[in-house]
Amino acid sequence: MDISDKENSCLIVGGSHAGAQLAISLRQMGWQGRIKIISEEAYLPYQRPPLSKALLAGKQELENVYIRPETLYEKQNIEFALKTRVAKINRKAKTVETQTGEIISYDKLALCTGARVRKLEICGTDLAGIHYLRNFADVSRIKGELDSPKKIFIVGGGYIGLEAAASLKQLNHEVTVVEAAGRVLQRVTAPQVSNFFHAKHHQQGVSIVTNKQVAEFLGNNKVVEKVVCTDGTVFEADLVIVGIGVRPNEELAAQAGLKTNNGIWVDEFAQTDDPDIVAAGDNTNHPNKLLDTRLRLESVPNAMEQAKAAAASICGKPTEYASLPWFWSDQYTIKLQIAGLNTGYDQVVLRGDPADGNDSFVAWYLKGGKLLAADCINRPKEFMFAKQLLAKKIDVKPEQLTNENFELKQLV
Amino acid sequence: MPLIKYIDHAGNEYEADVDVGKTVMDGAMDNMIDGILAECGGCCSCATCHVYVDESYLPVTGNAEGMEKEMLTAVNEPKDNSRLSCQIFVTEEMDGMTVRIPESQY
Ligand SMILES: Cc1cc2nc3c(=O)[nH]c(=O)nc-3n(C[C@H](O)[C@H](O)[C@H](O)COP(=O)(O)OP(=O)(O)OC[C@H]3O[C@@H](n4cnc5c(N)ncnc54)[C@H](O)[C@@H]3O)c2cc1C
Ligand code: FES
User: Fold this and answer.
1) Which ligand is nearest to the CA of A304?
2) For residue A60, which of A71, A51, A73 has the smallest C-alpha distance?
3) Fewer CB atoms inside 10 Å of the end CB: C or N, chain A?
4) Which of A47, A326, A388 sits opposite B41 (nearest CB)?
5) Of the residues A229, A244, A259, the one at which a domain ends
6) Does residue A107 sit in the same domain as residue A256?
7) Nearby residues of A136 by Cβ (< 8 Å), 6 or more positions away
8) Domain boundary among A228, A244, A260
9) Chain B interface includes A392 (CB < 8 A)
10) Which atom of ligand 2 is nearest to the CA of B47?
11) Per-residue confidence in pLDDT tens, chain B, 106 aa
């Protein structure tokens, strides 16, 4: 496709981290055709990570977290259709249909539809005061109900639940987190890291209850008042936040006959089975040569870097996306930075002592003696070196990882 | 409004007017200057916003400290004038400052 042809049109469905980066990357790569972002949300692309952090804690407002300013989109001639949901793709005609029946044609289509929250399917979820945390609209509703100190009940001890707990505790609310598994962050970290965060929240006055499952919400005047657990325990609550994971928005692609399986199936160039359709972000199932596996990720770095690869494919300059996954989480004064994926680890070794009160250590994950991942708690330097060790597949011995006097720099 | 100059790996120069209180990283993002990816959105977690600050402006910007300094010890080619641009909040005194974007960020 001739990227200098002004008649071409690239339509992007979803205006968040992936969609915004894709549009900007297209212009940086010389795409001169039309670019239009269709987004269901009412706002220009904004950063999602602050939703459970600075935004919820009231330290930042929406205007501080826009990914790019409106003036840049105007200057770059990137069009938006906000509050517009795409309902259908017609691949033969190369058009999409919006929920209101408008038909928009494309030459290239980018699916950046991300993910949506997994809903709790129990009685009482229709009561007022029960919230999820994915969009700015969610945060704004939550904040609207927090005019005075409240009893806040958080369902799910994952990153989002814990970040929300930290932000709300700092605003002096009474916060309880309930986790169905035996420990917080069970799905993603080693017991040592879970225990550290559990203790930290406890120290800050957040109550964490594990091995407990919510059975139903009870209310008065249609407003939530009580949370009933399967074992009969009852908690009082003025406001509930449910954070139990997300689902990829892949249905649009599936209905159009594109392959999906826990995400829209793309190759290392972010290309779907249709040569005119790419996909990037939380919604894709993609291969990663570095990790030698297919995976679906939920992180900003993934959304941005894959979007760059998608833009390159559209411009006919395919560049492989094979980055090392990484993630971060901020809670109180703790910065957690995670390099790599620990899936399948059989050994965890520590650098530093989680219990010495310094809030500074690294949990290294190995499998068969090979380094897989590192959870770095207030250890930015080790995080940076871990990324390099993993990306370059450098051999490292557990004794080197645990020895504070051993400079990792020597290895990279 | 202070004017910040960004020089890329190939020596091309870009200028951006950046509001006081915004960061040098914001200036690059808001003006589509390539090479500063800012994956963490400015929370000092990614180091994809590394720049070299014109030495004569170092007294104004200050040197990296704390977390930022730690991150910078492990970037490609750290130098004495290395900073994470998301941690440099623009002031009037920075008008005319030049920052160079390292080659590894392209
Ligand atoms: C509270 C919170 C905290 C987080 N913290 C971190 C963090 O610290 N670090 C990190 O790396 N990641 C974090 N994440 C994850 C990160 O935000 C996501 O990985 C990222 O937003 C993915 O971007 P995306 O563009 O793929 O999709 P999304 O951000 O999910 O955006 C998809 C957009 O497409 C729209 N859309 C979907 N379907 C349609 C349709 N049919 N028509 C029109 N529009 C549609 C959606 O409404 C949405 O606006 C956090 C997420 C949340 C919710
Ligand atoms: S933008 Fe991530 S460290 Fe500066």
Assistant:
1) 1
2) A51
3) N
4) A47
5) A244
6) yes
7) A41, A43, A46, A51, A55, A62
8) A244
9) no
10) 3
11) 999 999 999 999 999 999 999 999 999 999 999 999 999 999 999 999 999 999 999 999 999 999 999 999 999 999 999 999 999 999 999 999 999 999 999 8
